[in-house]
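User: I've been going back and forth on whether these two constructs are worth ordering. Before I decide, could you fold them both?

Assistant: Sure. I'll take them in the order you sent them. The first construct and its structure tokens:
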Amino acid sequence: MTDARVARVSGRGRFRTGAVVVAALLLHLITQAGMYLATPGFSLGRFRDYFVHDQLGYLAIVKNFSEGLFAAVEPDTETGANTYPRMYYEAIGLVARVTGWDPIVAWNVCGMAVQLVLVGLLAGILVGLSRRWWVGLIAPVPFMLGTFSRLTVTGWYTPLESHAVIWGPFGILHTLNGESVSLSLAAICLLSLGMLWLRPARPRTRVLLTTLISLVLGGLANVQTYSFIAAIYLLAFGLATWVILRGRHYVLAALSVVLIPVVFLAGPTVADAGGQLPALVFGLLPAVPGMIALIVRSRGAVLLYCVAVVLGASPQVVQTVVGLVTGDPFLAYRVASNTKLGVPLETGLISGLALIVPLIVILAAAIWRKRPLWGAYALGAALAWVMLGTNDIWGANAEPYRLYMDVFFLVAATILPIGVLVLTDLWSARAGQVQPDPSGAEADAVAPAPAVTGRSVPRWAVLVAALLCVGIATVSLTDWWVFYRSGIARALMVTDSPRDQALTELAQQSARTHPGTLVMVDSCIDPRVLKVTSGVPIAYYHLGMAWPTDYDAIATIVSARLSGAIDRDAAIEGNATQVLTDSDCGDDWGDRYADDLVEQSSLPYTQADGSSGTITLWGLE
């Protein structure tokens, strides 16, 4: 073949891959956001009305940053301290500030953009590994997998005790919040590491890029803690298992197995003595023998990557440790509130079937074909999943249901490339054929990989295994379909109605005339929405995110408001002496508290449905 012909063929291949990637991105947009096409008034300026309580708290951070408030404060009152991982919200706040976008627009655009990068990368990897363009089109599918909730509880998610739930990756991605972004970035890092070490690359380039990726992985602790923990557990257990399997270190394998019950037995003691963070670190104990062997094997290079991870995570870790040591009441509450959030064994097994069955197939193939990489992926993922999903049993008690879902997401995002490698190898293998170990020379900077002779597998068995995996995954997609058609999946908040505009204008007037004074609202006005539309300090707080300076007073104000009343003493103590009311509200604060309230300004409004009222700004004396 001439050089010109090679160039033409290569050009067509790149164009075809690019077209497939674009098609995969469009499919992801349709499957994850296409439901909004049927929602009247849809635009990027509409906020998804999907478990909005926490999301509106995060959006308040975005709003504050977009308006130049860069201090780490409780976002609603703009007082106190905030140790919550918030780097992403601060980043998109800066995006909104620089571009002039509304914070909601920045939230929607940035959240979906990161997802698209992940799907595009996965599609390109699948095309490259399979050498078949159409394989890239299945890149959006892992994010549609479900937990068989449609069959077990007739819904799209499985409720557990307390506020815990189990749902598929689509339920995580739909929020577009820091968790969805952090998990997407973690998956991008894991896929990038796989590409870097399983393909030819210069040693210096490999070390430099791996260090950079490790730094990014560590930085995810500043975005969303649980996704960072899930990624580190997956990586640690996967690498430790790989070095043990590849070197056939039977003693290390036995030691690692013995250390698993040690974690379950000693973990509660570690948690009691040191707290949640040391307990989570202790949970990595079974991976330590393999990681030490890997550090030795790499002549210290892996230690450099570990240091990079620690450096990336250090801002959030140091901030949290300082808060715990100094007795921050909010952090103490967070740790104490993590109760009854475990995943029952039966629920965990059923919910994870769409991934558990493929992992078993990959492990069986690894044993049959003598492929350490496949075995390390399957065993490492299983160990990380089990350890984090049961962390309430061994003492960490760090929202096991959330970590269960986070590992589910990361395995779903990374299993297809391994699956393609396995399927391609099994389908083309012949008995007695000698093939290089794909986890070898390119994955090992120390020693070349030996050739391996694996037993062939009958093609009918390969076909049955593939159809079994595809069939189970397909059944799990019914959860996504129920979600896609549900009202909650397509609901949008209206934050720019005439009523909202009147509230925003008067709240901002209050901030100009009484800077630093909190605004209190009646029970018919949503303080969370008013915060993100006006950006002024509000007499409200999010219990699970951060606490204001005058916590007791603000908590009393919030409680009184829910019962339709004003607690005057708490309002004065908490500096919440500016009050907004709606004449259409049954609280009737203007008449009930006429002796305490002095009218300052008012604005009428008429909604699109013809309802009307008057928003009044009062001063509390």
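The second construct, handled the same way:
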Amino acid sequence: MTIKKEEELLGSEIVIKTLLHEKVKYIFGYPGGAIMPIYDSLHNYLNVVSHILMRHEQGAIHAAQGYARATGKIGVCFTTSGPGATNLITGLADALIDSTPIVCITGQVSSALLGTDAFQETNIIDISIPVTKWNTQILNAKDIFHSIQKGFLIAKKGRPGPVLIEITKDAQFQKYIFNQKNIISYTEIKNFRPYPYIQEKYIKQAANLINTAQKPLVIVGQGVILAKAEYEFTQFIEKTGIPVASTLLGLSILESCHPLYVGMLGMHGNYAPNILTNQCDLLIAIGMRFDDRVTGNVQKYATQAKIIHLEIDPYEINKNILCHIPILGDCKVSLKKLIYYVNKSYHKTWISQFYKLRKKEEIYVIQEDLNPLKKGITMGEVMKWINKYKQKDSILVTDVGQHQMIASRYFNFSCIRSNITSGGLGTMGFALPASIGAKLGYKNRQVICIVGDGGIQMTIQEMGTILQNKISISIILLNNNFLGMVRQWQQLFFKKRYSCTKLINPDFIKLANAYNIKAKKIDKRNQLESAVKETLNYKQSFLLEIIIEKENNVFPMIPSGAAVDEIRLT
């Protein structure tokens, strides 16, 4: 950011100069009355920062999430006050639970009108408290620079999360004499301790358990990605020879073909790691939070095992599952320390048990998913052809539902930060705008957006953003004319009473064409391979609609309330 020795600036221009100081390259947003001064100042800087005009504020925040998840940088979005700000709430909640660093800047009515129910006035500060890591209201131009800088620091440091900054309209218009003395970068904030002190005694105790365990299991989550600790993690598991299972958001830390990788955990995860979680003698949880989709019934979860938990957020220790050795701190540092103390080891007999159970899953589930005998197309065989024709460093962006689970199970991950999805909140409509952010973050990487016919219609207007900005995304729409995951539960647990889950859909091909997106629809198996190949080789955006089996269920499955080793194959 270039600041003259001393100059008088509008608060709105200070906003833009601060973002440039933070090296922001993209802003995802939607203008309106209360943020118009900021947009007016932005006009003078569009040669150095790109604004992506989304078609809905929820699309803007999901795009910022996609950008942050793909790049590891902070995603930024702008909205106006009132409905513009409230449309961010779902994305804020999503970003908080999935630890995504974003900074949202919203306008607000002038300070003299606060509390008067003025046009488009909403108390977004109080509304957003439960779904932000930090939020603040700015009433004076002099507070803009340091408040935004503070917001960036909080969003990124420690466990990442969303920040919301509200700026009143009069603060945007207010002039302030700005000079070099104002530009003092925040390195710390009073009472903000993002990185807990790592206690060496717990490192040594953990190493002792690891060195003596006969049946250890590592479960890895997104925390390793957020800490940029992939190298240290790989060193740790390859030295100890411990098998690794991943949470949904931990996918892509290891390549899918890594010999120590034994599959995905959770309700629709792989059979072996779920079963053997309740047979291991040592469970090492790294950068994950023991959410209910991983643990199943917590009263029956790994009760036979000692548990080591590497975690940056003190709140997560003993929240859901009691651990024997808590290792608080940045896992990049913790893993380095552990590597020093652990012995070189192998666990071939123990790992062979995972492979035996894997063969059982192949017989009952995987073979039918990937090479079905039934007439209709399955989601699994779509993934088989995607794996054949995708680029090695492709980024997979999924929406929420059956397709999300199938894609996560079968996609061949071979590159870090190649899995972007809504994990904790399960936000339908996430994928299309998140794909936009991911593609802008990595223009040279192929982005594959896999969506269902329900979820895509929640944010389908973002095809307008693809049109306007000429963004290249491979969109694969798996259409069963149902809200598939809800229908599956209705089939299995509600005696096939399909209440309000059948969809009468529009002509997706005409819709895509209206946005100048090439599109094709197929419904026969002999069309599938060539259509997937065409989609993934096309240089611009392409929507491939695939009509799939209506009652194609996702297995394995842990029924609600069941233990992880009560997982069903059929």
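Notes on the second construct follow. The two ends are 59 Å apart (CA to CA). The first strand starts at residue 6 and ends at 10.
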